Amino acid sequence: MPAPARVLIVAGSDSGGGAGIQADIKSVTALGGYAATAITALTAQNTRGVFGVVGVDPAFIQQQMRIVLEDIGADAVKTGMLHSAAVIEAVCEVLDSLDPAIPIVVDPVMVAQSGDALLDPGATESLAKRLLPRATLLTPNTPEAERLCGETIGDLDGMVRAAKRLLDMGPDAVLVKGGHLSGATVVDVLATGDTVETFESPRIDTPHTHGTGCTLASAIATGLGQGLDLHTAVVRARAYLYEAIRTAPGLGRGHGPVNHGHTVSPFRGSDR
Q: pLDDT value at position 271?
């Protein structure tokens, strides 16, 4: 058997299991990859909100990354919650040492599904200047894209404009996700230096969408680590996430988790 694609995930922990490192590991595993981690923060959260955050020392985040890379290695890297400028700087120092051929998927986690802030107010500039130029793919939702590029996004044209503006900040490609906009169809916009492509899916009427951004970014990183081209990796990841939302288990009393394990388990939702 060939070795699975190795995905190093640099992100925060979600004690509720629906987002963050937990969602990342489940997604990578469900799609046939091997997940290694460098945890940036511990959060006390459930489906109703984030109730506490404890940051990990930036030097220890670097140590986690380097120890993994020196021994296991990585075919792709995915970053999630990097809550402060110091953490972003520390992570970028390690990323600078990577082979440029290793794809880096950056999910610019700023706000949880519950609306709780997950990025220090002063860290946005560091995110834009230090991390974005290192990204093979940047995957903001529309509120994150608005915050990064300083423009209001209300429709598809706004998404396209934002994607192009974010490209100017240095990433190789940008996937602006449209799930926060209204309408019966969810549209995502993928922009590279040469093309702008849209992807559409029927909107699923459900509150159980906690961790969808983490899930999609990790699924794409897995595909890139497995050698898929960007278009194919995005298509497969979107299909994986759609089914995970459709068969969500209905856990919790707020924004519940999706069904990350639908590729490996017969479970198909519940009536909780």
A: 45
